[in-house]
Every structure is written in structure tokens, then in C-alpha cells.
Amino acid sequence: MITWGTFVSQLFNGLALGALLALISSGLTIIYGALGVLNLAHGAMFMLGGYAGYVAYAHTGSFVAAVVAGSVFMLVLGVVLERLVIRHFYKRSPEDQLLVTFGLGIVFVEVVRHFFGSLTRTLPSPGLVSGITNLGFMYYPTYRLALVGIVALALLALFLLLYKTRLGMTVRAGIEDPIMVDSLGIDIGRVLMLVFGIGAMAAGFAGVVNAPVVSIAPDMGEAILVQTFVVVVIGGVGSFPGAILGGLIAGEIVSLTSMFDPAYSQIMLFAAMTLVLVLRPRGLLGVKGRE
Amino acid sequence: MSKTGNTPRGVDRRDFIRIGLGAAGGLALPAGLAGPARAAVHPPIGTWPAGSSGGTVYAGAAVPLTGSYAEQGADELKGMQLAVEHINEGHPLMKVLSPRTNNGVLGKKLVLLYADSGAKPNEAVQAEQRFISENKVVVMTGSTSSAVAVAMNKLAQREKVLYFAGISGSNDTTGKDCVRYGFRQNFFGHPAAAALGPVMVKQFGKNRKAAFMTPDYTYGHTVTKSVNDYLSQNAGWQMVTNQVSPLGTQDFSQYLINIANSGAEFLINVNWGRDAVLSTQQAHRFGILPKMTLVIPYQIPFLAPQVGADIMQGVYAATDFWWTMGEMPQYPNAKMFVDAFQKKYGYRPEWGAENGYVSFAHWARMVEQAGSFYPPDVIRTWEKGETIPSLVGPVHYRPQDHQCVRPVVIVRGKKPADMRNKEDFWDVLEVVPGEGLMQAPDAFGCQPGDYT
Predict the structure, then answer these.
(1) CA dist., res. A40 & res. A278, Å (int)
(2) Which of A154, A258, B68, B413 could hold B254 in an S-S bridge, CB 3.0 to 4.6 Å?
(3) Is B274 touching A (CB cutoff 8 A)?
(4) CATH code reported for the domain at B8-187+329-406
(5) pTM of the entire structure?
(6) How far apart are the C-alpha atoms of B209 and A211, rounded to whole Å?
């Protein structure tokens, strides 16, 4: 039976779920929007960020250090990857791009499995926000509450970066018309490198802040990757605000369906995606594509 | 030990009877002579006789080395590898379980091939299909997901290649999805419920409210049903909610919120592998544990070290085997196994390894007794249902559904302060004999199909 308490609880939980999905998806959508590459290694990058944070935490005992380490590590790795691998695939067919990023994802997962094994690792939530909070209508892990704020701040930072800085303007111009940007004398190659790094950093950041919620394991990115695709498709491929809206919608769908029958929550997510694809193929906030 | 015994003497006597009756015997003959002689009698079937015509025979295992059951699959594989090693060298423990084993199986070296199934039925079937066509495996094994075990059963029956299950907890594996070519050593939903139920009722009383967490496939549904049937029919317990989640779920918050609002006093977590780890950890973070009492009907290898003894203390669980049984005088085989395993791999085995080891030993025993790799002969030998040794005392396989009738071990989580070493998570409370726990052989609709 559905009570008012359950409804409010699930509604709130949907927000928390959705915020995290939005953050992970934003990295995926930024990279696709600017580079035109569908990064199938995104889930593995999310996982790698978590492990980088875990290692930093094991050495310092500081959660902040873990977050910084996970983000910076992925930023650097993203930049290196773009230089060494990804940029050679901009002009190649989408199939090649899918294969190379998919392959990178497998490599990341197996390297981590080699060094850390398949057992889950736990990153404890920082002392300040550990424990349980009584919200009146339910008890909720304090860290999950804090996470909503952390993710909101991270998304705000990404928004400012993309919409209020010169770099962001160039990126968005590059999404709209790369040839024009290039002919204006802007080094589009360097911009793309940075975008890939920022996208990877967003995944890495999400990986660390998610670690106290769901313990990390080498193949944790697989399931997340599928969900982020759904989010990006619902919100509009390549659209940053779309990723946020899509994430929140996906979170609420999963949570509210669970109120009636959790077995249907994933099905409803895909049903919603199908509906969007039928009624508005470019996604809710998607703009006309690059081609 | 059984009256058929494990002494060389008893073995010899049966051999003479068999040979005297002109049955499939031929043990006295060298294997090289025996094979072709029988090949003339039976038409080829499955990988027979091609798979056993050389000096080496292959076994194929499909175990999850990635995904939610990766760690359990790796442990299971280690048990299998140890068994194969022991079969080839005629290890003393192997000779207890399969007295005629000397060097290999019927004098042929046994080689174990394995592939990662990711606990996905289609990947497991593809891998085994490859082992059948390329290596002519004489036997298949592995699962760590009943969805895989059921798919493997079907493959075994279709290809006429023997299969014995790895970890598989569903009632269906030797129930409605049973096959002539499939066997299972380990415990499953129904006996788990029948063994754990009375302990729970004695400990917690009647008319209690329980929330279930169930993974959405054959294992989860049958185990939840068996446990709920027992508790509701025998003690008036009520299932106030059943949260069904897909295999591989990571964030359980939406399920846990429903449980938190359900008014349950008990959380019966049927999730397995990493799903069990994550759901249990998150239940703790939501304050559901320790407010509700956690019960684990189908014990999960490596759950306790991952969630910690703080959460696992006082938790009741049913299992196939726990390593401290090796310290009990009535289980000398268990001691030999734990010692050998720990020496080779550096940790004490969990029950997936135990099942992998014993299943291989039982298969080798049946082949030796049949004196042939010819699958129908091996199956008929298995179906005699003789009482044979295991690591947890004498057991036997039922001819009707090919399920091993074996004890179920009831354990309870230890307090952190009581742990003698970092693997000492469970107290063995009871080793419940298998006979009284089993359903009637046809209760779950087993119709095993043909021999040929």
C-alpha cells in the first residue's frame, strides 16, 4: 500500500538519484557535443575516478583529498587519452570511435581488476556528513543528503565554465560550427583536448563522490553507462541542460515506479526513453544536430 | 561411511559382480583397450568416444570472473582447479572421495578449461559450445547463477554431454528444469528454508513481519518462495513487502525506502554476490540495520569480509560448508580440504570452492565406477544413488532428480571480539541432515528426459 510517507520519500530519493545521474551524464554529453565521439569508456572512467579517490583516501585519510585526486587524475588521464588516442578517431567512422572507446573501457576495467581484485572497496563518507538524518517523513543517510548539494555545486561550476567563460564560449561555438571556429584562428584541437579532459574529470568526480553511496568495484561502470545513455537520449544528445533535466526525470521515474513495483523501474526508464525518441527524437532539450 | 564403503576391498567385490554380469565393466582392461571395445557396442553420443580416445580428457567450466558474482566465481574455480590437480596426482583426499582415482580419470590426464561467463546464460552456453566443438570436453561445469545452471542443463541434455552445476540455489535446477545429463551437489532454496526456518522460529517466535529482497531470476524467486512458504505456513510470519531487483543493481535506495516504510521487523536478503554486499551496506546506511534483524537464507561467499563483522554479527544464514567444520572431529575430509586449499591459495575456502571440489570428485568417482566415459553409463552409475563420502559426511544423489541429498549448515555471525582470525566470521550452529529437508523428488516438476 502506498502511503503519503512513502510517496514523499521516493520523490525525494528520485531527486538524489537524478542529481548523480545528471552529473555523470553531463560529462558524456559534453564530450559528445563537442567532439562528436560517443565515449563508451565513460562508465569505466567513472569507476577509475572512484578508485583514484580510494587510493588517495587510503594514503591520506582525507575525503577532500580523495575528491581532488579522483578529479585531477581523470582530468590528466582524459587529456593524455585525447592526445594519444581519441583525436586520431575524429575523422573516422562512428563504428571505429565506438570500438576504440569500448576497448579502452575494457582495458581500464581489467587493469583495475588486476591490481585491486573483484571485491568491493569502501570509501567511508566524511565524518561531518556521516550517519542518518531524520527528515520527518523518513530516515535518510546524511551523506546522500549532502550529495545532492555537492552535485548541485559541481553542476553549477560546470555551467559557469561552459556558459560564462571564454573557453566555454569557444566550446559551444565549436559544437555549433567547428569549421567557422577553426577559420577564426582558434586552435580547436586544444579546445577539444580540454573538453575531453573536463568530461573525464566530471566522470571521475562523480566516481569519487558516489563511492560512499555504492562501494566501488571494477565493473561498476557498465550499469551506469547504460543509465547515462538513457539520460542523455531523454535530455537531448550533446545538451548540458538536457543532461540535468534527463537525469532528474530518470531519477524520479526509477524512484516513483519503485513505489508501485520496483521490478518495473528499469522498464519504465526505457519506456520513457522510447516515448521521447518517438515524440521528440532529438531529446527534450536537444538542438539540431551537428551534421 | 556407507556400507558400499570406500575400501579397496568393497570396490573389488563390486567390480567382480559387474564384470561377471557382463555390464559396462571392463575395468580390469587397460583403458586404451576398453574404449574401442565399447565404441563398437554403442553408437557415438555427444563428445563420446572422440573426447576420451586420447591420453588426455578435457572438462569445461564456465564461471563468472566479471560482474556481480566475479569473486564467488573465482573462488569456485579455485576449488575446481584443486580438484583436478588432486585427481591427476591421486591426492589422499581425492582417494577418500573417489577411491579408484589414481592418476587422472580412467588413466587419462584431466585438463580443466575455463571461460568467463559474467554470470550470463548466453555467454556460458557459447563458451561451453566452443569447448564441446573444439576440445570435445567429456564434462561441463560452472554456474554461480541458477540462470546459467538452467541454461547449461538444457545445453547438456541437447548435446548429450554431462554437466554438474557450480553454485546454483534455485529449486528449478533439479526441479522443473532438471535434465538427465545434469547433477547438482550443493544445497538450494527448499532445503535452505527447511533447515533455517525452524532455527528462526525457535529464536524469534511466531507471527513476525518480514521484508524480502529478491534478485529477479530463478534463484531469487524460488528461494524467496521457499523461505516465505516455510515461515508463513509453519509460524504465521507475514511477508510485508518483497523488493525485486535486477541482477547487478548498485543503488538500492528506492527498494530500501519501501522496506523502511513497510513495518517489517526482519530483513530477509536473498540478493547474492556483490548485490548482497551493496544492499546490505546500504540497508545499514539507511538505518534499516540493525533496527531490523538481517537473515541470509543462502549464504554468500565473501559477504562477511566486505560488509564487516559489525553488521554480520548475530545474522543467521544457511550454507553448504564453512571452513571451521574442518576443526570438528567428525569431518576429517573437511580438514584435509581446508588445509590443502589454504596452502595453495593463501586463504580459507568458501563454499563455492567446496562445491566445485566435491562435485568434481563425485564425477570422477562415477566415471571410475562406470569404467567408461560413455555418458549413459556414467549417469546410470550416478543414479544408483549409493551413499558416498563428501566433506560434510555421507551423501547420496537421488536418481529421480539428480540432486545430492546432503546436510545444510546453519551458521550465525560472530561478534567482532570473538573472531580468532580475519576469516572467522561464522559459528556453525547446526549441521542439519539432508533427508528431512528435501521435497518429494517430483514436487518441483522434474522430468529428466532421455539417456540417449
Answers:
(1) 24
(2) A258
(3) yes
(4) 3.40.50.2300
(5) 0.88
(6) 32
